[in-house]
Design goal:
mainly alpha; about 0% strand; about 110 residues; 4 helices
Length: about 110
């Protein structure tokens, strides 16, 4: 009789197990999230590149700094500076050069990705 009593107590104190989700579903959902994140990063990089090309002419008409004297090093620094400006502007994903281009790329990615 003590065995029946002990098994009743053990059964009452066992927590209920939650139903398990299929691993293939959670794995495919995780893969989709990773792929979606990669796609958005690439889209942000494309927008940053396009914006950088638009901002580049700003530095063409600026006189060289008398301290550095201009030259190849200053041109290179300005190029990297413009690229970083463009990345900062587009990093949150809210700035898009052409929203229609983004929609078309997303549609193509969803159909073929």
């Amino acid at each position: 009789m003590s065995n029946d009593y002990n098994s009743a107590i053990i059964n009452k104190t066992k927590p209920m197990q939650e139903p398990r989700q299929s691993n293939s579903y959670s794995t495919s959902k995780a893969n989709f999230n990773i792929e979606s994140k990669k796609f958005n990063e690439a889209l942000n990089e494309l927008n940053a590149t396009l914006l950088s090309n638009m901002l580049e002419p700003i530095y063409e008409d600026i006189e060289p700094d008398p301290l550095t004297g201009g030259g190849f090093a200053e041109e290179t620094l300005n190029h990297f500076l413009v690229n970083e400006y463009a990345r900062e502007i587009t990093k949150d994903g809210n700035f898009k050069i052409d929203p229609n281009l983004n929609k078309q790329l997303l549609k193509k990615y969803q159909n073929h990705g």
